């Protein structure tokens, strides 16, 4: 479902949700399930943004991606290096770039997805970050909800790549180091002067869905608001090993049920 056509009728004041946390804590899995539940609750169309250079949100959602913003950067770099223009005869550069950008937007029934991707060669991500920022500024007003899976850290927020952030969901595992990592992200958010309506912690992969005293002590020490706990579940591991989309987990999945409960309490 592309939100682009709706722009002629009205513009949404989009609500932007950023999901952040260190790598390896299941952040992308929860982000994908979050997007799925929003759509199921009628909060559509959603613009799903994979802003992690190591992109795999599409795998969680079970969709194919034709092109990423990083791919565009590579094609343009190769064209400049060879001196051969990639622009078809009779098409302006602006029209060609617009065509390329449209290939980066994967359109599904309830949501569309934009993937940043990564550059293949050496160098920084400044150009790709710039493309992401420009596309978000253009696309976001056409969707009531924008959900961004950030890389491990706060680069996209600290650089102002996201037009605005209304909610920040910090994801950690149940280790002290994981909680300390998201604590630093929360502190950076305050230092940047960002004022999301909601910022809280979701602890993932907790044995039996419980946190021990040491983890709770660290959460309090970091001054974090605990939104909820998602239990460790062997079925998630099995889906991952089999290459199955996490959105295909049954509704009886304790991971889905715990996350749905958290989302319901947020009253988005």
Automatic annotation (TrEMBL):
Pfam families: CbiA. Keywords: ATP-binding, Nucleotide-binding. One of its GO terms (molecular function) is ATP binding. InterPro entries: CobQ/CobB/MinD/ParA_Nub-bd_dom, CooC, P-loop_NTPase, ParA/MinD_ATPase. The keyword Nucleotide-binding applies. The keyword Coiled coil does not apply. GO terms for biological process: negative regulation of cell division. SUPFAM superfamilies: P-loop containing nucleoside triphosphate hydrolases. One of its GO terms (cellular component) is cytoplasmic side of plasma membrane. Residues 17-245 form the CobQ/CobB/MinD/ParA nucleotide binding domain. PANTHER family: SEPTUM SITE-DETERMINING PROTEIN MIND HOMOLOG, CHLOROPLASTIC, SEPTUM SITE-DETERMINING PROTEIN MIND HOMOLOG, CHLOROPLASTIC-RELATED. This is CobQ/CobB/MinD/ParA nucleotide binding domain protein. It comes from Marvinbryantia formatexigens DSM 14469.
């Amino acid at each position: 479902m592309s939100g682009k056509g709706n722009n002629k009728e009205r513009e949404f004041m989009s609500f932007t949700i950023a999901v952040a946390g260190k790598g390896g804590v299941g952040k992308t899995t929860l982000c994908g399930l979050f997007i799925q539940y929003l759509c199921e609750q009628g909060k559509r169309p959603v613009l799903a943004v994979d802003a992690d250079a190591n992109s795999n949100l599409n795998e969680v959602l079970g969709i194919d991606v034709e092109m990423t913003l990083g791919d565009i950067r590579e094609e343009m770099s190769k064209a400049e290096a060879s001196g051969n223009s990639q622009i078809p005869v009779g098409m302006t550069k602006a029209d060609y770039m617009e065509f390329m950008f449209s290939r980066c937007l994967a359109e599904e029934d309830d949501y569309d997805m934009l993937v940043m991707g990564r550059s293949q060669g050496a160098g920084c991500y400044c150009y790709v970050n710039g493309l992401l920022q420009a596309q978000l500024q253009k696309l976001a007003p056409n969707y009531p909800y924008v959900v961004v899976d950030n890389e491990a850290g706060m680069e996209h927020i600290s650089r102002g790549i996201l037009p605005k952030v209304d909610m920040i969901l910090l994801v950690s595992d149940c280790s002290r180091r994981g909680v300390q990592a998201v604590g630093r992200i929360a502190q950076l958010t305050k230092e940047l002067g960002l004022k999301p309506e909601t910022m809280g912690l979701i602890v993932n992969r907790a044995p039996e869905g419980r946190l021990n005293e040491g983890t709770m002590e660290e959460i309090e020490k970091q001054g974090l608001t605990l939104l909820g706990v998602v239990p460790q579940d062997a079925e998630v591991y099995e889906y991952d090993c089999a290459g199955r989309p996490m959105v295909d987990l049954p509704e009886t999945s304790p991971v889905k049920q715990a996350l749905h409960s958290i989302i319901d309490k947020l009253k988005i």
